[in-house]
Write a structure and sequence with these properties.
single chain, alpha+beta, 5-stranded mixed beta sheet, two-stranded antiparallel sheet, 5 helices, elongated
């Protein structure tokens, strides 16, 4: 909890002042910690405000997939870290422009990341990787994880409403179905990469929808 970090550093400064042991080094160290934590809180709040909007009625606008991925990853990063998940985000320095509704794309990414978290939560080796790429006509975002994968017999059902492979009470079975609908409304596609060695979902979005 970043607020707990700020509270703790402030308490340390107060105690050092009480026992008259304040020095420039200790003040600078605490100030640096408080400043970096406050910036982290700011990024989390920005991501929450962005994610909390529905976005369905937003007009199509020029978006950057790499920027959306980085901002959305901030929303999940601390949770993954606290549960021992190695979370890797790979996005190019060059922009990955497309026309779409950034709030909805962010919501789809969060859903995929949460699904991956559920898949690796109980594993010894926990990792999730999100990668943004593009070519001349499309931009792509993949979310992979170290889970056991989806059995071939179930792959044709995972996009169906109310179908879930999660334990009872852990999912509604609507996440992938709703996510696929959002991507299709952008004239793109959401699919399971059956050739990947681990579970890997891919989002394809046209740079310029028809």
């Amino acid at each position: 909890n970043p607020l707990a970090i700020i509270h703790g550093e402030a308490a340390i400064l107060k105690e050092l002042a009480r026992i008259e042991r304040l020095n420039p080094e200790s003040v600078a160290r605490a100030a640096d910690k408080i400043e970096s934590t406050a910036l982290r809180i700011s990024r989390i709040i920005k991501a929450l405000k962005f994610f909390a909007r529905e976005g369905e009625r937003d007009p199509l606008q020029s978006c950057d997939l790499g920027q959306i991925l980085n901002e959305t990853a901030e929303f999940c990063r601390e949770r993954f870290k606290n549960h021992g998940v190695n979370f890797r985000v790979i996005a190019p320095h060059d922009s990955l422009p497309f026309r779409g509704r950034s709030v909805q794309i962010s919501q789809v990414i969060v859903n995929l990341l949460n699904n991956s978290f559920d898949a690796v939560e109980e594993l010894t080796e926990k990792w999730i990787e999100a990668v943004a790429t593009g070519d001349e006509h499309n931009v792509y975002l993949s979310v992979s994880d170290g889970g056991t994968g989806i059995p071939p017999a179930l792959r044709g059902q995972i996009m169906m409403p109310f179908f879930t492979t999660k334990d009872v009470g852990k999912g509604t079975g609507l996440g992938l179905s709703v996510s696929a609908g959002i991507i299709e409304s952008h004239q793109g596609s959401l699919f399971l990469d059956t050739e990947a060695p681990h579970t890997r979902f891919v989002i394809r979005l046209p740079r310029k929808p028809a």
